[in-house]
Amino acid sequence: MEQAKEQDALCDLLVKIGEKVSDRVVESLREDGVEHCSAVHSKSESDVIYRIDHVAEEIIVHALDESARDFGGIILIAEGIGVSEVTVYPTGIEMKDAKWRIILDPIDGTRGLMYDKRPAFFLAGAAKNKGAETRLSDVTVAVMVEIPTTRMFLGDTLSCRKGNGVVAVRRNLQTGNRSDFSPQPSSADSLRGGFAQFARFFTPGKEVLARLEEELLAILYPDAEDKEIVTFEDQYISSGGQLYEMLTGKDRFVGDIRRSLYEKYQDTMRGGHVCHPYDLAAHLIGVEAGLIITDIHGNPLDGPLETTYPMDWIGYANESIFNEVSPVLNFLLNKFNLL
């Protein structure tokens, strides 16, 4: 299969899987209710698996069983699917012989969605199989599908092939109609007056992150007037959701540095939940849309394709905001001994 056509076909497959997962999860929320969906199903090394998470497994496994041979074999890296969270499709293909690796989060944002509070996202990234050395930077196809709450009638699907921009479709969940749209990150040249935040939706460590944010804003805006609200914040418990908010121009900055925070304070603070590569499976969509997404050192985001590796990531809506924020942030990260 020609490379571009193969990537298009793989993208279509992931979109189809993601939209089926989205529809089935919403159906489960409606039929089973919050109490059932929010019950713990199992625990993995990387996270808790809730009953609502388990809904997606059958759809994903069935689709890959049917289609993986067409792509030369697929290694699936996904939390809560398979005994080892790394499985090969179709049955009988050796891992070394599979052509593709797919890292996938069936429901990113489970904790908000399972209480029917806020949408979650199906996230997937595909890279040619380079064995255990395959990394996020090798991803050439990415898909994110919104999983709405039961009160929503619209859901967005975004996808990309590396170097080809973003394809975005808005689904009307009542009529089935689909319409194209263009995600547009913020063009603002400053954080001032916009949404910008450090991820601190879980304890411990909130106090440290709040101090860091306070100092960042104080240095950036020493002229802030009394009672002025310099920025707003939105603690969206979903890396995919945070990426989506930046893609659609709602948020201008996100800093998730929980990994470095817990490493720094490991002698005085219990460890906390952090971001993992599967949470960032679709970060290529942000890059293709013009977001600047880095690690804590300011390098392009990268990491191994696995479920347990701890990750920091920082997202900027555009180059102007990167130039405004990153020098001050780097100074403060050094000051707080987080680098």
- What percent strand? 15-25%
List the uncertain runs: none
Order of strands across the main sheet: 4-3-5-6-7-8-9-10
Largest sheet: 8 strands, mixed
CATH architecture of the largest domain: 2-Layer Sandwich
In terms of structural class, how would the helical and strand content be classed?
alpha+beta
Q: CA-to-CA gap between the ends?
A: 44 Å
- Supply the CATH superfamily name of the largest domain: Fructose-1,6-Bisphosphatase, subunit A, domain 1
Fold and architecture overview:
It contains nine helices and 14 strands. It has 339 residues and is α+β, with helices and mostly antiparallel strands. It has two domains: 3-180, Fructose-1,6-Bisphosphatase, Chain A, domain 1, CATH 3.30.540; 195-335, D-Maltodextrin-Binding Protein, domain 2 (3-Layer(aba) Sandwich), CATH 3.40.190.80. An eight-stranded mixed beta sheet has the order 4-3-5-6-7-8-9-10, sandwiched between helices. A four-stranded mixed beta sheet has the order 11-12-14-13. The relative contact order is 0.13.
